[in-house]
């Protein structure tokens, strides 16, 4: 109690929502509602992401190139690309040392990654289709295909440890944040930069959860 004050301070009354752990495990809509509510992802966050998209879109090709260079720094992350990925029917090297950043499958994978990065910046976050896409991105790294046409055609999906998926999302998050900070102040005010970084942080963590839910049974 402050000195000289006779009025006791009261703790705020917090409304506690009921969350069904089974429902958020089996229902994507309920899970997204929980994630966005917990992280405070709002229409304002979606708007600021859309606003910065034209300002950082140009860095995506370099971001993807740098991302694969990072993956090639470690044998456990490089070995993943010795497996044939879904939709790729070109040549594969027989030895890890023969796999290069110019290999056909790496070029193929970069196309997907550029598409994902652009969708993060330009998606309609009021649409369930956006969250369904991000959820399928998580599924497709577990060795289980989320796409019916791939299963029908016998196309094998990726099989990547969750550890490496989470690390790569963290790396992408850093790059996007640095890109926002480098935007000139006359194009994006410091306050808007702070809001953009916060919004990106929320989206990356939601995407991270939409990976982990398919690896971790909880």
TrEMBL record:
Boundaries of every Globin-sensor domain copy: 29-218
Domain of life (superkingdom): Eukaryota
InterPro entries listed in its UniProt record: Globin-sensor_dom, Globin/Proto
Regions that span the bilayer: none
GO molecular function: heme binding; oxygen binding
Name of the protein in its database record: Globin-sensor domain-containing protein
């Amino acid at each position: 109690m402050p000195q000289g004050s006779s009025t006791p301070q009261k703790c705020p009354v917090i409304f506690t929502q009921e969350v069904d752990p089974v429902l958020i495990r089996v229902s994507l809509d309920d899970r997204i509602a929980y994630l966005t509510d917990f992280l405070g992802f709002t229409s304002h966050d979606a708007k600021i992401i859309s606003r910065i998209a034209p300002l950082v879109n140009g860095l995506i090709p370099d971001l993807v190139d740098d991302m694969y260079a990072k993956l090639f720094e470690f044998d456990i992350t490089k070995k993943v690309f010795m497996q044939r990925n879904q939709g790729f029917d070109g040549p594969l090297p027989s030895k890890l040392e023969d796999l290069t950043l110019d290999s056909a499958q790496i070029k193929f994978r970069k196309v997907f990654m550029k598409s994902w990065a652009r969708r993060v910046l330009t998606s309609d976050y009021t649409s369930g289709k956006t969250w369904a896409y991000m959820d399928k991105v998580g599924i497709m790294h577990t060795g289980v295909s989320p796409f019916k046409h791939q299963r029908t055609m016998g196309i094998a999906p990726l099989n990547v440890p969750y550890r490496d998926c989470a690390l790569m999302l963290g790396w992408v998050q850093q790059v996007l944040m640095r890109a926002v900070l480098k935007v000139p102040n006359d194009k994006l005010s410091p306050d808007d930069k702070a809001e953009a970084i916060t919004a990106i942080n929320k989206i990356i963590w939601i995407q991270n959860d939409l990976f982990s839910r398919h690896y971790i049974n909880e």
